[in-house]
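HUMAN: Forgive my ignorance: could you write out one protein's sequence and backbone structure tokens?

ASSISTANT:
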Amino acid sequence: MIINLKKLQALRTRTFNLPPQKRVSSPASALSFVNKRGFVYFWPIKGIDLPSLWTAVAGDRPVADKHDDPGHITWGWKDNALDKKIWYYGKILRGKATMISLEIAPYFYALSENYGSPEEDYLIAYQEGRLPQSAKQVYEALLDKGAMNTLDLRKEAKLSNAKDSEFNKALEYLQRDFKILPVGVAQAGAWKYSHIYAITTSHFPELAEQARKITESQARMKLIELYFDMVGAAQIRDVQKLFGWGNEVVKKSVNKLMENGVLIPAEHPKSAGEWVAIKEVI
């Protein structure tokens, strides 16, 4: 089976919302875009093929440096939605800003190291060496005091003297594992702009229960299927690069989807390697 590049481009034009598709031009159409795809990046990420809100609004061009670029309207939409619970937002895939529909968020959560007890899960992870000390301090501060902006959080977590990189890595780690998420913006700090963070289960109390019904295998297959519905064709290494699950785990999930007829092995006419595709682009 050889991938048809015209069909592949046509699919990505639709799923990435590229011209001549109608631009995403309002908060309502942004929500519709995220819900249709299941999960997207906020910004396009170099080396990763995945739809992004920026591209859907501004077209297939680099993120502009100028703050008055019309594409940056996405920033306000994102900030204004943080407390609205219309989607799940955080630094998730590869530690980059990711927007996830509320329907799909439980599938991501099912793959996290959260098992239903926010007061205990993090301690188990810490004792087993999987949770860094700085992340533990940040999490405990939020658990104890509730939602806080990053300046107050850094102080409460006793990380005021820590390097910026250490504090930011703690925030990223906790977001990637669905333990905390930004829920608002505060006028704090030198730039009068600071995210407010909260414990995930306090902001989305139903998420753990929704995820409990989903096995890890089901979650991975669902997310991989959504990914291929967006990109049409990819190599195993692309799936691994995005989700970071480990090569054998990814292969097992992809093989299961091929057995079910959802995906098919394919050849790319211009690129060597083992490709997998959906029927629509063959």
Q: What stands out?
A: The chain is about 45% helix and 10% strand.
